[in-house]
Specification:
Two copies of one chain form a homodimer.
Chain A (H helix, E strand, L loop, with lengths): L2 H21 L6 H13 L2 E2 H8 L3 H13 L3 E5 L6 E5 L1 H22 L4 H13 L3
Antiparallel strand pairs in A: 1-3, 2-3
Helix pairs in contact in A: 1-5, 3-4
The first copy, chain A, binds a DNA duplex through helix 1, helix 2 and helix 4.
Protein name (chains A, B): MarR family transcriptional regulator
GO molecular function, one term (chains A, B): DNA binding
Pfam families (chains A, B): MarR
DNA sequence: TCTATTTATTTAACTAGCTAAATAAATACT
DNA sequence: AGTATTTATTTAGCTAGTTAAATAAATAGA
């Protein structure tokens, strides 16, 4: 068994666990953060736009949005096309995002700061060179 | 948001999905394969040895072993220390392992074959250079 | 116009990780 | 010896991904 896969899976799991740990202070999980960041960057989006952007399946997003809605982070609005739901950040979310972003930046610096910019580019290049 | 994390998580998810896909022909999931491979390599192991080796929490292994046991891949035996359970591969599993290993080798070649040995080492080195 | 197909979302059920707490056996301490 | 602590496993319940199938609205075609 090629150790690359084991190492890659381990690191991925380890990093999401760490991310969840630092996000605890904001009462968020990493998958919830991914959606909030996506909405912050792109503005209001339909569910389909979100899952295509994050490259996960629709039901994962439906469930996460439902949770974020009950927690007051987002709102679901009917679209002009009655099939689609438009998701927007709540005022409360907009207010809290800067502090969360600070947390994330510190986390990233801690995790990946030991790599030079060239090494980071090298890493991305190698990742992309794997099939898929 | 540093794109390294997104890329890493995506690739990890993509590779496990691919692995699950090729393992379908053997009616196995990737996490089940990880345990079977571990037992093949190390011989009989206690649950604790397995979860420490695979670096996941104990309940994940308890559940996976229960499933593998009902499917006939492994057996749970009482240890001399009555607290521990010793897990062994079934005869059926031993019989089927070579074919599964062929599948896995082909999968690895497909996924990572486009990288030279140096690139693979480079990749591992960069992974390890990240904190953790 | 009516029907068939496509598209957006949701629901159900599965694997797979996690933490926290329960249980039972072994070990350590007085 | 008897109690307290540690260790191994399990159970319960959570996030988070997946596929398959249901529902409802929009679109395309006869």
């Amino acid at each position: 068994m090629n150790p690359i896969f084991h190492a890659l899976f381990q690191k991925s799991r380890y990093l999401t666990n760490c991310l969840n740990e630092v996000l605890k202070q904001h009462h968020l999980y990493s998958s919830q953060w991914a959606i909030l960041y996506c909405l912050h960057k792109n503005g209001s989006m339909t569910l389909t736009q979100i899952w295509k952007y994050l490259n996960v399946e629709a039901p994962s997003i439906t469930r996460a949005i439902t949770r974020l809605e009950t927690l007051g982070w987002v709102e679901r609005l009917d679209g002009e096309d009655k099939r689609e739901k438009i998701v927007t950040l709540s005022a409360q979310a907009e207010e809290r995002l800067p502090a969360i972003m600070d947390t994330i930046l510190a986390f990233e610096e801690e995790m990946v700061g030991s790599l030079t910019t060239e090494e980071q580019q090298q890493f991305m290049m190698l990742l992309e060179k794997m099939k898929g």
